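Thread: iron/sulfur cluster complex, take 2
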Amino acid sequence: MDAIRTLTGPIIPLERSNVDTDQIIPAVFLKRVTKTGYDDALFHSWRQDPAFVLNQEPYRQGGVLVVGYDFGTGSSREHAVWALRDFGITAVLGPRFGEIFRGNAGKQGLLVGQITEEATEALWAVAKASPGEPVTVDLEARTATAGGVTHDFQIDDYTRWRLLEGLDDIALTLRDEDAITAFEANRPAWMPTTQPVREGTA
Amino acid sequence: MGRTLAEKVWDDHVVVKGQDGSPDLIYIDLHLVHEVTSPQAFDGLRQAGRGLRRTDLTVATEDHNTPTLAIDKPIQDPTSRKQIETLRHNAAEFGVRIHSLGDKEQGIVHLVGPQLGLTLPGVTVVCGDSHTSTHGAFGAMAFGIGTSEVEHVMATQTLPLKPFKTMAINVEGTLRPGVTAKDIILAVIAKIGTGGGAGYVFEYRGSAIRALSIEGRMTICNMSIEAGARAGMVAPDETTFAYVKDKPHAPKGADWDAALEYWRTLPTDDDAVFDNEITIDADLLEPFVTWGTNPGQGASLSGVVPDPASFEDPTDRAAAERALAYMDLEPGTKLKEIPVDTVFIGSCTNSRMEDLAAAADILRGKKKADGVRVMVVPGSARVRLEAEAAGLDKVFTDFGAEWRFAGCSMCLGMNPDQLAPGERCASTSNRNFEGRQGKGGRTHLVSPLVAAATAIRGTLSSPWDLEHTPELHPATTGEEA
Ligand code: SF4
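Output below.
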């Protein structure tokens, strides 16, 4: 994972709330077994409409997506994050996110920052007044600056630290392998195991 | 101060306590795997040269992509086939137990854990699927994870997690006959909205929850995610213990006694404090149905399609306008007058034995409405066998319904069972998102009883609308079973 400090790109205004992960990437694209190559799948159904924002220049090369309430709700599919990333979305800013989506994004180096409703409206207004206007997202300072105005965003300390350092979660956890082994030694005997397969099952 | 159920389960799974705002490292007792969200995780292990730490705490099944007809033939869609084959290959390579198509334990991943007796009170369960919240019905802490986390659990059997906040959902009173667990959860989501539970673990409490069977509790916990909650739980009680006892992998002998002793300590202490709380009056609930394109857009079936102008919040108003356009509905239309093309009884929300039995009680001896397609899809191969042993398949086929093999089926547009564009469906599943059941398809979420009554009348209907109200299955009606 690459370390992130600041990101700059056009504000892409997605003026919708309740954008669930089925909209971000429909289930038919989940049949692939790869982790990349999902740019065509992003918002697949909405992209059939030529007027949809991602079909407009200068947004077709990606940028910073600014969204309404409850973005990324629903299914746990990490493909939603891969599709955003593959399209060229480097950060998503909005007032509230689906929890699993936010977690997935953090693991994949997609910055998800929570901004106020006012900041959301302000960024949309900037994009509408001058399409293509860039926003600079500063992860260190937790700010998003566009049109000369700086807005704070929230991201939890731990995710921020990992993104700033570009750290792999699994390697971090394996530093505690001794603690995991010790915990396992004390698990109660009644805890279920899947193997060996018990009688009465196929 | 006392602790809640969720806090107790959490505390007992902390491997390393997080310092200075870093997350706790939580041990995972059971990892359920399916074909859609695992291939990239197995690949990640391979690339990093890591093994799967605890194959004995991992089990895989095939559900999302699988056809529900002709399961003995090769899967037609090459991409679906490849995904299933990839899972089989990965399971063999990493030593993971797998229940493949045709196996008695194959089925929707959220039916497999409980029916094997792997889902137990007080354990932690994860799966790369948001409806993992289902398993909370046993008093387990169970939640969906993304593919990176799937890989993390495979490699370490743990997850770094921040503690969730707790919300009590109190459902007090007695459900009227014909009103079910599904109606409770649809009403909860309509009340708090699809984002209202963000950051929380729900604990469903109160007399109406206690009176529910485990299968009803699973229906409720299943849809916790639709209110934005990470997990939903019900404290284990005698109903829970009776359900898990004698399941193949449930503890036996002295282990059972030890488990039982621990499980009895799990319910929330009287002096514990929840971060938030809501109350629902079960006596007032009616059969519920969604009219929009998220599970929070629902109303009592006796009502009408709402007028977007009636929503004060501009965001809700815009969402309602968009939803009605997609659903092709006019404000003011009586919900009961909406005709459907398809009725789908299935999915991890409502495809267990109790759901099928309840629907069969309504359909028995009747014929489906003209022109309506009715699909009944058991959630697991085991449920299918049990339903056939009870003669339910005959009830469904005599009625004119299709009786299928187990899988996710029409819950999501990933296998051959899909709605055609513009088709309208009364569905016992959990998501009515645009295109969820097939591109352009329109979904109304309902209970199995409403689905059955709708199949008879051809328009959205509850059992209350039938000429001769059949005797309703007590387990689903919230009476003491
Ligand atoms: S039945 Fe539907 S909600 Fe449940 S696991 Fe399958 S696709 Fe997901």
